[in-house]
Amino acid sequence: MRPREEIRAAIAAACAARGWPVEEIAVERPKDPAHGDWATPVALALARPLKRPPREIGEALVETLELDPDRYSAVEVAGPGFVNVRLSPAYLREAVARILADPAGFLHSDRLAGRSINVEFVSSNPTGPLHVGHARNAALGDAIAALYEAQGADVDREYYFNDAGRQMDILGASIHARYRQLWEPDYPFPEEGYRGAYIRDLAEEVRETEGERFRDVEPEACLEFFRRFAGERMTASIKSDLERFRVAFDRWFNESSLYADGSLEKTLEDLREAGAIYEKDDAVWLRASAYGDTEDRVLVKSTGMPTYLLPDIAYHRDKHERGYDRAVDVWGADHHSYQVRMQAALKALGYPPRWLETIIYQQVSLIEDGQEVRLSTRRNRMVTLRELMDDIGVDVTRYFLLMRKGDTHMTFDLDLAREQSEENPVYYVQYAHARIAGVFTKLERPEFDPCASEALPAPGIFARLVEDREIELMRTLEDLPDVIADAAESLEPHRLTDALETLARRFHLWYHHHRFLVEDEDLARARLALARATQRALAETLAILGVSAPESM
RNA sequence: GCCCCGGUAGCUCAGUGGACAGAGCGGCGGCCUUCUAAGCCGUUGGUCGGGGGUUCGAAUCCUCCCCGGGGCGCCA
Question: Quick one: which of A1, A263, A310, A464 could link to A306 by a disulfide (CB 3.0–4.6 Å)?
Fold first, then answer.
């Protein structure tokens, strides 16, 4: 059991033994390290019902509290009545040994073992290149999926292509127009057409591969070709960008397949049976207002064509049919209003209330040369994911996008990411990892490397780790599994970037003040073991964020 | 008009109702015959947007304002 749970259980037992009325026991990390590793304010909360001073209650609680003295070195009342608990150095040293024996095993958990979770993210229309907003979506979705995996869940990463709607027709028509303009500059461009430079590139590509054979053909006769060509090229481009961004999707789901396999009809049928739809003005409506939405929504237009919502419901129904215990969608803030209607539809279908979880992330604004770069398909400014990767690399891009909580409007400062790369937190963290690797490449006694030896170092030598900065570092390592679990629970990957920076800082501090390669062999071995444990923890945590852990920099 | 997100140090942002509100960057001043100076040490910095309220206790919860961003289609 993790210390927090153990402390919580002990407090619950102590309160029960004294007959105190405690509903919920808060066990929190004190902000000030002088207040121990864990603290509980239960005595403060009990002061009123017990009509006794909180400090007195705290004293009584400490007296009754049964905690293993080998693991908990200090249990004391402090301040207005907090009960503070400190993990013993011996227990912290034991954590180092456990990390070395099995880093992933120590840092991960099996809390969600046996649960199957579908994480759907990015899901951008294949009508243009991915930009920085999609990159935030990709980084968040992938990290959330990895966090679930770190809790033992069986996770599938999925991408939904809206390849069936009118947008694809417009895309095809846009490329067709640019193609014709290669010979006739005045050829009309569609009113709502896509004007990005990539459209001209694709038109040029058609000329190279197909020649002039569509030059004198009526648009109606060749638009299907252009639509298909454009869809294939954009889809391939998106896939290749994401692969380079280190996101490995398990499934690419095409909206068009829902039209082909009768899913739309089945979905309408299910909703009809549930009494959730009706017809009005020649259209089919979802009775969303009966399931929490503010108003009813059209599913099938009076023209007989489905709205965007119907295939989306059918898609979520498909995911549910495939047996996932939970589905997570990562959406941009511009889609937040669809949460309610989607939840209404799923409620109508009879799914559990929290089956679908939607993560909303806010807009990213780019700052370059001190000015905001407005996202525009017309301009050829550096806003695409590809250009971002070319310019500052995958590691920095991912890390920067994950540093901030999803629901903050983040400012991505390109000048900082690029020009001041020495001061980048990602390098700070990676450097800690590389620094440790460097020590081991210089090591003249390879048998001192705890990872190279046949067996782990004798437990006794860890007792040599007594310096304040070593204890602090071990404390940070010991806490990491809880930070990861909390990040998974709250679906907030930014907690890991914070933890990584703290861990790296504690390491650099220790490194700067104490040498590893010292005369005293046991001390050297103990310090090398702590260094390796730190390195493993850094690598495992960076891996969750999809950021590399370099051996040298 | 209604809905969602934000407003915390010069800047970018942490802060799950608890102890004097934190970090990085920036500014200022130091440290390289040493296992990587992409590092370390010191210092500068705040009406937590504003007013009420709930609570033993509020940056955190409720309410009303102010400011910024986004969204409110038989578009996708």
Answer: A310
